[in-house]
């Protein structure tokens, strides 16, 4: 059984014609018929019912069709995977990113990346840190950019590419005497991210180190993205710990205010991640190099 035989079989099945099927794969009708005959001989089963008016799949042919589709798809993916390692002329790079890198970091670097490597198409999938690492583990993306480092020794390679500050913000009408004490946090109506978020994990870790149980906070809402948190705070919903990148414009124009907390600071690192033992494609290495060079863009004071 050959890949060409499967290709001809699918073409004939889809067009219901030996002549049209052969044409679809650049073969004469007689040659297409020879491929099908050889395939039927090997399988010892008739795959098509032939009549003067049309060609249709037999029951054995219908059973074989789904398997042939999967085999051809896998072969195409294997060819694409090898081609990705032949250079940067034509390649697709699949990257997963948690909320802040996806919204604030990667879009800022995209212009430089596409200018340097116009043949590489970037496909970005977004989720929280936990979801993105699952995409990486399931081999649905080649690289991930996340704002947290869960315990996963041996499974992933984490390369730190920068850090940022997470700040406590509120509407300007809520600003009280500053700085506040860390014990005052439990009195504030807080809007938080979900538990799989790198921002949430960083804040909870720093609170625990400062002697404050995050479960004691007065949480009025838990939302699934930094954008949702930002809009909720802008709407007067309460206070929130959020990436300084996500609210830089609002802090500058005064639509949001930063709240200082005595002897309390939250910083978190960004990481480029890939599967341990995996050889990165040239496109992935190019993307990695750009992130490394752009460390100053990622890092905020």
The appropriate CATH architecture of the largest domain is 3-Layer(aba) Sandwich
Q: Describe the global form.
A: elongated
Number of domains: 3
Order of helices and strands: HHHEEHEHEHEEEHEHEHEEHH
The CATH superfamily of the largest domain is Periplasmic binding protein-like II
Number of helices: 11
Runs with pLDDT <50, length 5+?
296-301
What is the name of the CATH class of the largest domain? Answer: Alpha Beta
The count of strands amounts to 11
Describe the sheet with the most strands.
7 strands, mixed
Mean pLDDT: 86
Class from secondary-structure proportions? alpha/beta
Percentage of β-strand residues: 15-25%
Short description:
The protein has 11 helices and 11 strands.
What does this 3D model show about the protein?
The strands form 3 sheets. Strands 3, 4, 5, 6, 9, 10 and 11 form a 7-stranded mixed β-sheet that branches. The protein contains 11 helices and 11 strands. It is an alpha/beta fold and 301 residues long. It folds into 3 domains: 3-84, Winged helix-like DNA-binding domain superfamily/Winged helix DNA-binding domain (Arc Repressor Mutant, subunit A, Orthogonal Bundle), CATH 1.10.10.10; 91-151 and 276-291, Periplasmic binding protein-like II (D-Maltodextrin-Binding Protein, domain 2, 3-Layer(aba) Sandwich); 163-268, Periplasmic binding protein-like II (D-Maltodextrin-Binding Protein, domain 2, 3-Layer(aba) Sandwich), CATH 3.40.190. The termini are far apart. Residues 296-301 have low confidence and may be disordered. Helix 1 crosses helix 3 (29-43) and helix 2 packs across helix 3 (29-43).
